[in-house]
Amino acid sequence: MSELETRQLRYFVAVAEELHFGRAAERLGMAQPPLSRAIRELERQLGVTLLRRTTRQVELTAAGETLLRDARTALDVISAAGRRAQHAGEPTPRLRLALKPDIDGGLLPQILDAYAGQEAALPVALVLGRFGEQAQAVRDGRADAALLLAPFDDRGLDFEQLATEPFLLALAAADPLAARPSLCLADLAGLSLPDGSPADRGPVSGRRRPIGAHDNRPGPDGTDTLTESAEHNASDLPQIFRLVELGSVVCFFPASLTRRYPRPEITFLPVDDLEPATLAVAWPQTSHSTAVAAFVRAATTVAAAASPWKQERPRTAAT
Hints:
Layout lengths: L5 H13 L2 H8 L3 H15 L4 E3 L4 E3 L1 H27 L6 E5 L8 H9 L7 E5 L5 H6 L5 E6 L6 E9 L1 E6 L44 E2 L5 E2 L11 H9 L5 E4 H6 L5 E5 L6 E8 L5 H16 L14
Helix pairs in contact: 1-2, 1-4, 5-9
């Protein structure tokens, strides 16, 4: 078998993730026929079937699932190698920290202060992203470390858990459920999160598409088909809060975030059978950076010394 090319892996990953040749071709910025030929050539080269194609759908075979996992890792390593080389050649080295705004348990200022006092510390550049994007940013070299909520896709990463706090459910204050002191997940049947997923499954960290991103699967003719739950293209807090106020969706937030953004039109309730939010710091398994090691030490030290997050059970954001 001849060696695989990066181009072949990029083509295959796009098709395997979209499970639709037309959408994958659009994502890659190319026409569909050459993409189809490239995938057939890849299957011939490997001597296995990677995709089952019917007139209605495209599915991964066992060989395809294996290649998808390894191809993602290989492409991440290649991207990271280039980005880290560029970063190392900058006149002023920096430590790039990936996080979603406000998902830091309120610890970020203290962590940055503690890190600045370390001998190996570098200036910190924040790499801001949406929910669920932080682990990938570390894997592909956009960031050197991340603060993120566990569980997440930890392929190629080392991590330390820092602290936990409750998740609270945000729902419209006018909703009948808002009159209750607490809820359980079964009470949320029929309600949707901003990305369209069922609320009674709880928050899902590390999903492939972040909160607010569409996850519609195109039909065999290339047109979009809607999932059972209506989806809302909300990707930041003001948009999500507005949808919650209108009763269109509900959403889960760490308790520390709800204390920062009290809103009279929204009630925040505990969910008794929901696992807590766990804040972690993550970095590449292959990292030998003294600056990254210093940041991890600062984060773990601050988290250990901080007072435990208060376990308040607020009925509304204003209380």
